[in-house]
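dumping this here so i dont lose it
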């Protein structure tokens, strides 16, 4: 064995060929599961896409680096399931570009955060975390309530997502800015259109309590309140038990 390695080190071409061979085997092992992805990813007929306001909130979540301290993937371990809820399924991330599974938990996992707390709780928590969680190490994001949400480019965001496979319709793309406004203003005709385009179960309400304008806080809270609620696939009784 050592003789073979010694001889390979003395032959540049042989060493390169051997490295390519070994790397190819490793790459094939990693790629092989993708050939069966249609059989391994669960089906979720009730899966819906993110609304424009939720897309904007997700962009803010990424912009502010929330993924660095919060994961969005519950593993198949009993202690995680008992704490956070049903373990995450691949289908639940079908429309996430990029995925925000994360690898660190300075704060808790957020995969099933949707509608666990009230909008007011989230608004206070993001404005000053220690007002609701005394020991929190999370920084305050007071500017979210101050900054007006930009909506004129939301159609472009939805178009980009459709390019990578998210099934947005032409109507949803064309009305993105109006739907973002409507989702946070429940007493308007625009709100009715949001329900028609994205489903009656869509969260439609004043997320930050501010009535005169749409804020970054509206968008981020709307996104947080839908986490884990795009589909009920993980709650179906035929899912295997946690380890």
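and the seq i came up w/
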């Amino acid at each position: 064995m050592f003789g073979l390695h010694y001889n390979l080190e003395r032959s540049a071409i042989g060493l390169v060929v051997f490295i390519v061979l070994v790397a190819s085997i490793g790459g094939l092992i990693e790629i092989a599961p993708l050939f069966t992805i249609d059989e391994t990813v669960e089906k979720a007929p009730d899966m819906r896409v993110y609304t424009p306001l939720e897309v904007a909130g997700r962009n803010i979540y990424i912009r502010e680096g929330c993924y660095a301290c919060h994961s969005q993937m519950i593993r198949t371990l009993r202690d995680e399931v008992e704490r956070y809820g049903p373990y995450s399924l691949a289908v639940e991330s079908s429309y996430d570009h990029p995925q925000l599974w994360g690898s660190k938990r300075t704060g808790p996992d957020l995969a099933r955060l949707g509608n666990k707390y009230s909008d007011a709780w989230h608004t206070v928590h993001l404005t000053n975390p220690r007002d609701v969680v005394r020991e929190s190490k999370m920084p305050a994001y007071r500017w979210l309530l101050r900054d007006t949400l930009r909506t004129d480019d939301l159609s472009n965001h939805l178009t980009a997502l459709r390019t990578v496979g998210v099934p947005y319709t032409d109507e949803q793309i064309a009305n993105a800015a109006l739907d973002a406004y409507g989702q946070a203003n429940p007493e308007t005709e625009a709100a009715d259109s949001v329900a028609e385009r994205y489903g009656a179960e869509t969260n439609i309400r004043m997320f930050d309590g501010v009535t005169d304008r749409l804020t970054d806080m509206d968008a981020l809270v709307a996104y947080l309140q839908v986490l884990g609620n795009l589909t009920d696939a993980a709650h179906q009784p035929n899912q295997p038990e946690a380890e």
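The chain is about 45% helix and 0% strand.
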